[in-house]
Amino acid sequence: MKIFTSRAIHELDSATCEAQQISSIDLMERAAELVADELNSRFLPGQRFVVMAGPGNNGGDALAVARMLIERGYKRVEVFLFNVTGKLSHDCDEERKKLITIDGVDFTEVSREFNPPYLSDKDVVIDGLFGSGLNKPLMGGFVAVTRYINESGAYVVSIDLPSGLFGEWNSQVNRRDIIHASLTLAFQMPRLSFFFEENYTVLGEWKLLDIDLDETKIKELPADYMLVESRNIRPLLQKRLPFTGKRDYGSALLFAGSTGMMGAAVMCSRSTLRSGAGLVTVHGPKGGISILQTAVPEAMFEPDRNEHFITDMRIHHDHQAIAVGPGIGTNGQTIDALEALLKSGVSPLVLDADALNCISKRPSLLSLLPTKTIITPHIGEFDRLFGEQRSSEDRLKTAIEMARQYGIIIVLKGHYTATVRPTGRVYINPTGNPGMATAGAGDVLTGIIAAFLAQGYKPEHAATIGVFVHGLAGDIAAEKIGEFGMTAGDIAAYAGRAIRMIIDKNV
To answer: Which residue, among 492, 412, 488, 398, has the nearest Cα to 451 in the 3D structure?
Structure first.
């Protein structure tokens, strides 16, 4: 699913009206009908609604919703239209005219002084002050109204966007001056700002309402951001064919483990096997052989000459994917070995965990990364690599810049993991849950991505598929075990089932 900018959304609205031969107010009515239906499904007839409408089209949406609620039998609907400049958008004015014709409507047009209504936690405020057309932070009286609503304790439903929140970047906006929605009802597709951690408290729950925007224009319009769906992943998955052997599904070499951290090697190798790699070899410290071969007998073990950590990353056999990092530590000899590996130019390559920490200790290694190397940092690892970031949106901006600069694929892990390609295009992943915040989950992801690389998938596809499968496996584990009790091993165990669900169209 494409994630469009606010400007592109406006263009899409216009194209829809032209293609479907409807007016903009017809489209507004369609959107309002869906909002009213959603509210009707959630609230009883005696519910009190207080509608706050701005002077633009978002306000027009809110006025139409107010009218439709009254038509559905809700008798406690109070409407405040803020028209402080004396100039409403055309569609907002048309909706105002429709609303005030209703007998007994509780309607107040605010032109100067606003006497706010009493609000309690039993009331529902419908926020239609400003939507995606907003081009500057809220100011003056609108800030006061916003803070009054936020402090009231009322349940707030925002139409399109919480007022004061931009569709894309908000690093310069004071969060106190944004409506804190309990529910955001967005139209057709999400906005980029929905996926940043700092906006979680202002968005509340969010839901998409399909207003039937023109599909031809959706396909035509370019988008730098995508929300990954199973229908995007399914066509990429390769079938397992008859008359094939293990070598047809690739060999993955994992540089993983050190004394006290062999569990990382176990998690990584298990998930590589569970995700379809034909052969898996783990190169780890000599002292880890009994742990690895007992825990994962299907994997081969290549012992380092050192008992406790890895000192040699030379490639002795033919492998289709190399993964480096889970549990390897940051000993100087390990960093030297990683540098030698990178200088050899071997690829495809996925780097995670301590491999990234090694690079942080020796930043010159960044310039040695082969083109389309996949790195999978969590927030801390990312900031150690590229400098401390103030917010998740700043972190994404930096990831885009670094992916372009170094020609690499950055898997920026988080609640909505973002896979950034060397072109700067971003793929946002919706699968996964808080139960995956557990030791070893990142090692499992590394193994899954390595498995797809080994099977011959392009690095950009291996990363995107791997992240989606990893999150889906976590969702299966959460359903079977619960978020509190699931472990990284459970995620690895369900990777194969996740792949099957995608293929079978069960997700």
So the answer is: 492
List the one residue out of 40, 264, 74, 268 whose CA is nearest residue 157: 40
What values do phi and psi take at 302, rounded to 5? -115, 105
Q: Which helix (H) or strand (E) holds 384?
A: helix 379-386
Superfamily in which the 2-222 domain is placed by CATH: YjeF N-terminal domain (3.40.50.10260)
Hey, what amino acid is at 451?
Answer: A
DSSP string over 303-318: E-SSSSS-------S-
State phi, psi for 107 to the nearest 5 degrees.
-125, 130
| Domains of the chain by residue range | 2-222, 230-503
Helix axes 441-454, 459-481, angle to 10 degrees: 140
Alpha-carbon distance values, 445 to 184, 268, 271 (Å): 31, 8, 8
List the beta strands (DSSP E) in 154-264: 155-159, 183-187, 205-209, 225-227, 251-255
The span from the CA of 3 to the CA of 226, in Å, is 5
Instruction: Specify the 3-state DSSP secondary structure of 445.
Output: helix
What tokens appear for 235 in the block?
Answer: 């066509």
CA distance 309 to 294: 19
Q: What is the mean pLDDT of residues 486-494?
A: 99
pLDDT digits (tens, 9 = 90+) for 368-383: 999 999 999 999 999 9
What is the second-level CATH architecture of the domain 230-503? 3-Layer(aba) Sandwich (3.40)
pTM for the model: 0.96
